[in-house]
Write a structure and sequence with these properties.
With 600 residues, this protein is α+β, with helices and mostly antiparallel strands. It has four domains: 154 residues, no CATH class; 88 residues, Acyl-CoA dehydrogenase/oxidase, N-terminal domain (Butyryl-Coa Dehydrogenase, subunit A, domain 1); 100 residues, Butyryl-CoA Dehydrogenase, subunit A, domain 2 (Beta Barrel); 147 residues, Butyryl-CoA Dehydrogenase, subunit A, domain 3. It contains 22 helices and ten strands. The structure holds flavin-adenine dinucleotide. Its cofactor is FAD.
């Protein structure tokens, strides 16, 4: 890769993930510094906190089993009557809120465990709870200063309000501009909201929604968050969404027709020029660990369980299915991926619960990475398990029940898992954004450690205190070297493209680079956690780490091959010709392309 050493003069874009003075393992990884000391010894959940979580989980599990028939919810597309009230009464809609507000005061890790448990039983319930607890109105409380907004939200939380976050609009969430407009009235004492939102989780059952809207100003437009009481005149639920999965989850299109919002119910935040406000952005990043990584891990664990159930009862020509080499590879791959996702969730959340005196680390970068790492890994696990179960995997649970077969709901999990790659942001676009905002933020302007990045020396002191088997030590050595190679590639790219926009036009390259960084992140975490458990004894996870890292290395090798070898290709001209309708009409021969009539 040719390089020039021209210094960069470009000013940095805004990066809300960076916290000055607080170290971040992944941010340093982007810069080519492998901070093993930040992740090792790997954190564990505090014993008392774990027990507090166990108690809530026991009661919550009982409520789920008693009140929710997950297959019936999926088929009827409706949550059981009275379930919402039961969830509110049990405090499950206020998992982290102060007990004084009727909340359970749970830690982030225990909140995750509740969402995971819900997803393992009924994904619509999990989605309702995770939206409510992580991006609903109550989640803003820690960021609100004393005043009328805080008082109003506190009162609504105390009253058991259900809420959701209305951001996506029909034109598409990726647009920087929000078409919902807030117009100041009454000399600035209130705003009139006009616009439409789509896919708002909990929208149809919410008493309050937080809505992003554009306030047009004399100098420039600003996006702000408005807290809207859904009993306000002009608010309506204009449609109920039905998804491939999540049947029964209340998601709706919301219309705001001259809805009056008092000025004190608008969150005024620091200046920003992004499509999401800083606080909403922070909540969504952490929230996705619950809404996406929680169900991803739950489905992975179910896949492990289902694989065992099926493989142990199935034979091929009198030979147990579990004795075939390929099946063993499939089961062990899922096993190692469940271990990896559990590790990722722990890393992303245990630090959130760190007490005074414990070392502060910035987890935002890892929380961003968790979205794709977990949903894509989940997708691999569910897809693999569906193949393992053959036709029984593809058949619905109710169909199996009708013929007396074991009704494992693999087909339902498959439908749910696909949505995890879309809700909260489409997978490839998250990679693309992360590369721009996270990785290359470190390279424009050129980083101070550019010379260290260029040097051939790799710090492998991590090997000294790692309690790992030889294969895992080799994975750790590989990771340390790869972190350096990764940074060298980024530095060379940034130098070759002094104007970042020129580099950012190469989206495919950026996406693949982010995938390399994410793979390196999860390998590091898996090795750090494994080192904590040691090499001996029943808790040792050395085999799982080796399995996971070996597979991750194959993916990394493949990504590098594509990054360095792939040629520009014909994608631009071929897709432009097709989209314009200019060429290859014969490829549509013999298919009926008109949209079929669909009853609404
Ligand atoms: C189950 C579910 C629950 C949801 N819950 C909520 C909720 O509670 N609140 C809420 O506000 N929203 C919610 N959403 C919406 C969700 O966040 C969006 O669907 C998601 O962010 C993608 O946005 P979009 O569908 O508007 O697609 P768009 O943003 O319009 O994107 C369309 C396509 O363009 C691609 N694209 C965009 N920019 C680029 C680019 N620069 N280069 C290349 N490709 C690009 C995207 O990746 C995508 O493939 C939910 C969605 C689902 C499926």
């Amino acid at each position: 890769m040719a390089t020039s050493s021209r210094p960069h003069t470009v000013s940095r874009p805004q990066n809300l993930w960076h916290t000055p003075g607080v170290p971040s393992f992944l941010e340093d990884l982007y810069r080519g510094t492998f901070r093993w000391d930040l992740i090792h010894p790997f954190p564990v959940q505090d014993g008392a906190d774990q027990q507090a979580g166990d108690r809530v989980l026991a009661a919550f599990g009982a409520l789920l089993r008693e009140r929710v028939d997950p297959t019936e919810v999926d088929v009827s597309q409706r949550l059981p009557t009275g379930l919402l009230d039961a969830l509110v009464a049990g405090g499950y809609t206020r998992l982290q809120a102060d007990p004084e507000l009727g909340g359970l005061g749970l830690s982030s890790m225990n909140t995750f465990r509740i969402v995971q448990a819900a997803a393992s039983w009924s994904m619509p319930v999990a989605q309702l709870l995770s939206v409510q607890n992580t991006i609903g109105v109550g989640s803003y409380l820690p960021a609100l200063p004393p005043g009328p907004l805080r008082d109003t939200i506190s009162a609504r939380v105390r009253g058991g309000v259900i809420s959701g976050n209305a951001d996506t609009e029909p034109a598409g969430a990726a647009n920087r501009r929000r078409m919902t407009i807030a117009t100041p009235i009454e000399g600035g004492a209130a705003y009139l909201l006009n616009g439409q939102k789509v896919f708002t989780g909990n929208g149809p059952v919410a008493g309050m929604v937080n809505v992003t809207a554009t306030v047009q100003g004399p100098d420039r437009d600003r996006v702000r968050v408005f807290f809207v009481d859904t009993s306000s005149p002009g608010f309506s639920v204009s449609a109920h969404h039905e998804f491939m999965g999540l049947k029964g989850f209340p998601a709706g299109a919301l219309t705001f027709d001259n809805v009056r919002v008092p000025a004190e119910l608008v969150m005024v935040e620091e200046e920003h020029n992004r499509r999401l406000t800083p606080e909403l952005s922070r909540l969504i990043i952490r929230g996705r660990v619950h809404t996406i990584a929680g169900p991803s891990l739950a489905f992975g664990k179910l896949c492990l369980h289902w694989s065992r159930e099926f493989a142990n009862r199935r034979q091929v020509d009198d030979r147990p299915l579990g004795s075939f080499e390929e099946i063993q590879r499939m089961v062990s791959a899922t096993l190692s991926e469940v271990f990896a996702l559990e590790t990722l969730a722990q890393w992303c959340l245990l630090g959130e619960d760190a007490r005074d005196g414990e070392r502060a680390v910035n987890l935002r970068y890892e929380q961003v990475a968790a979205k794709n790492l977990s949903s894509m890994t989940c997708w691999r696990m569910v897809d693999r398990t569906m193949s393992l179960l053959g036709a029984e995997g593809y058949e619905s649970a109710q169909s199996k029940a009708r013929r007396g077969a074991q009704p494992l709901p693999v087909e339902r999990a498959f439908r749910e898992a696909r949505g995890l790659r879309i809700s909260g942001g489409v997978d490839f676009q998250i990679d693309n954004w992360t590369s721009q905002v996270g990785i290359f933020w470190c390279y424009y302007p050129e980083p101070e450690n550019a010379r260290a990045i260029e040097s051939e020396q790799v710090d492998v002191s991590c090997l000294d205190d790692a309690d790992l088997t030889e294969p895992n030590l080799d994975h750790l050595r590989f990771t340390a070297h790869q972190v350096k190679a990764f940074a060298r590639t980024c530095l060379a790219l940034a130098r070759r493209h002094p104007d970042p926009q020129e580099l950012f036009a190469q989206e495919h390259l950026l996406i693949q680079l982010n995938q390399v960084a994410s793979e390196l992140l999860l390998m590091s975490l898996v090795l750090a956690r494994t080192s904590r458990y040691g090499r001996l004894g029943p808790d040792s996870t050395q085999e799982l780490a080796d399995l996971y890292c070996a597979a991750a290395r194959r993916r990394i090798d493949d990504l590098w091959r594509r990054i360095t070898v792939e040629q520009p290709g014909e994608h631009a001209s071929a897709s432009a010709a097709w989209l314009a309708g200019d060429r290859w009409a014969h490829l549509m021969s013999d298919v009926l392309t008109e949209t079929p009539p669909t009853a609404s």
